[in-house]
Each structure stands twice: as structure tokens, then as C-alpha cells.
Amino acid sequence: MRIINLIENTKGCRDCLFEHGLSFYAETGKHRILVDTGASDAFIRNAARLEVDLKQVDMVILSHGHYDHAGGIPAFHRINPGAVIYMHRLAGEAYYHEKAGSCRYIGIDPGISELPAAELTDGEKRIDDGIFLFGGARGRKLWPSGNRELKVQREGKYYQDEFLHEQYLVLSEGGKRVLLSGCAHNGILNILDRYREIFGSEPDAVVSGFHMQKKSGYTREDLSVIREIGTELQKRNTVFYTGHCTGEIPYQIMKECMGEKLVYVHSGDEIFL
Description:
By secondary structure, this protein is α/β, with parallel strands linked by helices. It has helices at about 40-50, 65-70, 75-80, 190-200, 220-235, 250-260, and strands at about 1-5, 25, 30-35, 60, 85-90, 95-100, 100-105, 120, 125-130, 130-135, 150-155, 155-160, 170-175, 175-180, 205, 240, 260-265, 270.
């Protein structure tokens, strides 16, 4: 199994573009998969630099309904209209970031849900014997505080986003299972708990942002929660690949706890599993 980061927040190899966004290309023996498409069409230009043929992609998995993961879908659809786009049925709702008393729209282009290639999901979905989607991570154990700033608008009112639109991809091949998430807004520990409910074990690898980055700075409580999460993940028999919304300071704290079990993936970096 081969996974390439097509774009994230930091400069990577081969002069790849970078932006506040996330996109992974995953290649298995049977499939060519995009997990998210960044905030713009920049991931397409990176794919060309990395010699990834996006016309060969057979499906897109949208991890959740935020612009920095779905912004490139319209441009991708124009070059590969045949690829199925799996997105949660709630991904098209109106999502906002609340800060300093104002709310900024961070949802996706409403037209994405109307594309002929879009297939709406709800809960668990087995695409084939090597591809499985699930949601339903509802716990709030060691939940990073930045998620409390994210809202959903319904009937003109703002409510705490419960991230019901978030879905997770499990790839199985060669006796290994890999869990891919976008931002792990429900909290990586809670997502892993849900994974264990379904599979009765732990994944061999996790590829995900952890949504710990905070531009406003970190409280003592924030730093304590980050360290506790790192300590807990270190106990798992899993290797974690992260980037995007994790943040530099949280990454360094978690790296101290996790050592080789935590790897930062930059734009253009490749993972072999």
C-alpha cells in the first residue's frame, strides 16, 4: 500500500505547493483513491510534480464538510468525472468557525453534493473487501478545545458542531489495516474507540490530522490534554502519520511522548505500508 500526501500546510519535497488544506492519494492493488482534495486546485499541480495520474483515480473520499478538504473537488471532477465521490449526507450543511464573536463560513461549495458523481453516505459502508467507511465517533475523551469553536448553522442559529458529517476510511491489504481521517474532529482517541468497536483491534497505522493547532495560543489545560493524548497513543501498537491541523507545538509535545510512533507528513511525502 502506497500513500502520498498531495498537499498540507507545510513545504515538502520536490518544490510541492502547500496551503491550509489536506489531500492524500492512496494506491492499493485494486484501487486509486483520493482522500480529500485540499482547499484549492493546488493538489492537482502537486500530483503532476509527483507523477500521480489523477485520471486513474476511481474514487474520492471526503472526510468531512470543510472547505480545506473539499475545495479541490470541482477542479478534480472536471478532469475525472467518472470517479465516485463518497461524502456524508450531512457534509453539505453550513459550517462555521466562531471566533471573537463573529462566525466565518468554512463549509463546502454547495454544488459538490449535486455533482452526478456524488454518492451520499450515512454511517457504515463497505465499498469492497479492502475499503470500509465508518462514522459514529461520539465520545469526548481528551477532546482538543479548538473543536469547540466550530459550529453548524441551522434555521439561522449557530450550534456546536457534533461532527456527525465526519467519516473515516479503513484500507485493508496484505493483512494490514490503515485508518485515514481528515482532522479527527471527534478526537483521535474517540475515533480509535469506535474503530475497536467495529474491528475488535487496533489499526496498524493511522493517517490523520489531530486538530490541535490554535492561533490564539495554548492554555495549560490545552498543553496537558495534548500530552495526555500523546502518552495514550504511545501505548498503542500503531504508527501515526500526521500533519495539517495538528500544529507545530502540539506535534513536538506528542513527539516527545511517542518517539518513532509519530511521523510528520509534509506536502509530497510518501508512506509505504
